[in-house]
């Protein structure tokens, strides 16, 4: 029979393996509200709802971080005069930080908007009633990543094509398999300790 301390260790290892496979849930109420609003808008146009894309969200976070200290002007956000959009010299680094490259992001759309205090109704209208509405009305877009920093909200739209999928080099099934193997290893270590 196993000792009490060994059983506690096994229970701790099992709990750790379960917790390590679950991501911490981040409360993104501003982003979630915008996603619901955009999907409601698309539904009203008989378009499919956009699904969350983690890699696009990562890039949206990187870009929002670049904008956070910029004031709202007519050369930033949804009020941008075409041709005056900011260019980031470190864009390849921003992509690399999210394990992305230009070849799988080419067909996506990056849409920053600056709204003081990120008032939800104004944020939504900055996307649905601006130059960005053309992208939101386009059925080629199937995924979305959203992030905010200070007065900035960045939305990235993705496609289901290889040139706009924002998919990582590793497939989701490979990641799931490696997570499962990781949990099995924890359990095996626990069993060895019991014996």
Automatic annotation (TrEMBL):
Residues 31-157 form the Uncharacterized GPI-anchored protein At5g19230-like domain. It comes from Rhodamnia argentea. Keywords: Signal. It holds the Pfam family At5g19230. The keyword Cytoplasm does not apply. InterPro entries: At5g19230-like (IPR045285), At5g19230_dom (IPR059083). Residues 1-21 form the signal peptide. This is Uncharacterized GPI-anchored protein At3g06035.
